[in-house]
Amino acid sequence: GNKNINAKLVLLGDVGAGKSSLVLRFVKGQFIEFQESTIGAAFFSQTLAVNDATVKFEIWDTAGQERYHSLAPMYYRGAAAAIIVYDITNQASFERAKKWVQELQAQGNPNMVMALAGNKADLPDTRKVAAEEAQAYAQENGLFFMETSAKTAANVNDVFYEIAKRLPRV
Ligand code: GDP
Ligand code: MG
Predict the structure, then answer these.
(1) ipTM, 2 decimals?
(2) Which pTM was predicted?
(3) Nearest-ligand number for the alpha carbon of 24
């Protein structure tokens, strides 16, 4: 039968990687060129139908600034899923993403579905992080990987859809 699943999802990653833009694209189908920085965290909800279930995502879009780091556990604790976002044109953001993965592996829910999103895939000319490198990292660490663009919408719904498919059916 069809199941209703509520899933807390958290977005983590460096400032400017495009977390808020991915959420805005997924929830409202919009993109803003000068997206304002998130203060603390912002909450959104969106429902997605997959074959056998209706998943209601309760989405926490975190700020990413180091000064808000101590708040992060409030958002990832009890989360069923996380999207760790980096910017493919920014090597430091990829390093920061790996730090988040380590933190989640150490402190998060062990059954958490984790996605690594290499965002800004619409900017291949200024790419600094090879897709193959990120893919290999994701595979070694039990995440699934996609390159996304909040700007063009490429793979944005797909990340959420893939998470919805992987969530445990209770
Ligand atoms: P956050 O700090 O991780 O929430 O990042 P934002 O969503 O605020 O995005 C930071 C900046 O990158 C903004 O100016 C966005 O318009 C821009 N941005 C976000 N996603 C993309 C994308 O996929 N492609 C491009 N070209 N720019 C993006
Ligand atoms: Mg933001």
Answers:
(1) 0.99
(2) 0.97
(3) 1
Q: Which residues have CB under 8 Å from 23's CB, separation 6+?
A: 11, 42, 44, 59, 61
Distance in angstroms (rounded) separating the CA atoms of residues 8 and 5: 10
Give the model confidence (pLDDT) of 48-98 as tens digits.
999 889 999 999 999 988 888 889 999 999 999 999 999 999 999 999 999
Query: What number does the ligand 1 atom closest to the CA of 121 have?
Result: 23
Residue 119 and residue 88 in contact, taking contact as beta carbons nearer than 8 Å: yes
Nearest CA to ligand 1 atom 6: 18
**Ligand lying closest to the C-alpha of residue 17:** 1
* Cα distance between residue 18 and residue 11, in whole Å: 10
Positions of the chain with pLDDT lower than 50, given as ranges: none
Taking the centre of ligand 2 as the mean of its atom positions, its distance from the CA of residue 58, in whole angstroms, is: 16
